[in-house]
Design goal:
With 306 residues, the chain is of the alpha/beta class. The protein contains nine helices and eleven strands. The chain has a single domain, classed as Spore Coat Polysaccharide Biosynthesis Protein SpsA, Chain A. Helix 3 packs antiparallel against helix 5 and helix 5 packs across helix 6.
Length: 306
């Protein structure tokens, strides 16, 4: 695949990307394809130096019922102005998959990172989600996200269909399982490429997608309940891995953590969407009440504890 970046770009970027896309690409069809998923395609992102993640991602993609391409990328040589090499590589992988989706002419591209754990109910819900998205205005839909760490956890959500909710906020943490509509691909790709030009704001793919939605006034749509979490594995994008990442480098710990987490998340995905909406908004109200109490300070005449 030849690249023709639009406008002036850093010379080292052109060299990096052409070496980067020399990585392996695999096209496949999931087992027991879901018929209504015509025009949808998954794009799996992983790295050649993590064969364990590649094997797990391939198994995950095989059972989703959607055709897929799997990119096994080489890590870039340097950070190139990003936070670290891992963030640079993650950025390039997302950009390459978005470009590949545009070249493939798909209606919807689903980006799937190699630590995504998709709930087993996804296949049963896919046809309904496709039908529901056809009834709303959308450019991106977060099929999976990190609910407890996303800034949108501070904002109410409102169901706009049986399983799709709109959040008042725009910052979502997690681009591990996100659907992108074809009509938005040109604009999103241009946004990614702009950041690689001299002086560009080089941030993680999460940040790029968030800022693109904010600047384009595109609604923040999420699935309720959450259909994919990030599995327990060491992070490849942190500068200083914490204790959790170091522990998850141990095969024995990961082999226990993965099935336990999957069982928990599969159980959570059985909650009715209306119940998820109510629980989410109750937490928002409780959080705001707690924050107001802290900011207001003690009541008059009440002596704060020493």
């Amino acid at each position: 695949m030849e690249f023709a970046p639009v406008g002036p770009v850093d010379a080292c970027f052109v060299a990096d990307v052409r070496g980067f896309v020399g990585s392996r690409y695999t096209d496949a069809v999931s087992f027991d394809r879901v018929d209504p998923a015509q025009g949808w395609k998954c794009y799996g992102l992983t790295t050649v130096d993590r064969p364990d993640r590649t094997r797990r991602l391939r198994k995950e993609l095989d059972r989703l019922g959607i055709p897929y391409s799997l990119l096994e990328a080489e890590r870039p040589a340097d950070a190139f102005g990003f936070l670290n090499v891992g963030t640079h590589g993650c950025f390039l992988s997302h950009l390459e998959c978005l470009r590949r989706a545009r070249a493939d002419g798909v209606d919807v591209a689903v980006l799937v990172e190699d630590d995504a754990v998709v709930v087993r109910r996804f296949r049963r819900r896919l046809a309904r989600i496709i039908d529901e998205l056809a009834t709303v205005e959308w450019s991106m839909c977060y099929l999976g996200y990190l609910a407890t760490s996303s800034p949108i956890r501070r904002s109410p959500v409102r169901l706009v269909s049986d399983h799709i909710a709109r959040a008042d906020g725009w910052e979502v943490t997690g681009s591990h399982f996100v659907a992108v509509r074809a009509t938005a691909l040109d604009s999103i790709i241009e946004n990614f490429e702009e950041r690689l030009r001299p002086g560009g704001h080089r941030i993680s793919p999460d940040g790029v997608l968030n800022e693109w939605r904010r600047d384009s006034a595109s609604p923040t749509l999420i699935c309720l309940p959450n259909l994919a979490r990030q599995g327990p594995s060491p992070s490849g994008t942190t500068t200083r891995p914490g204790l959790r990442s170091r522990l998850l480098e141990v095969d024995a710990i990961r082999s226990v953590a993965w099935p336990v987490k999957r069982l928990m998340w599969d159980a959570a995905s059985s909650l009715p969407p209306r119940c998820c909406e109510q629980l989410w908004n109750r937490r928002v109200r409780d959080r705001r009440t707690d924050e107001h109490s802290v900011s207001a300070g003690p009541s008059p005449g009440v002596t704060p504890p020493s």
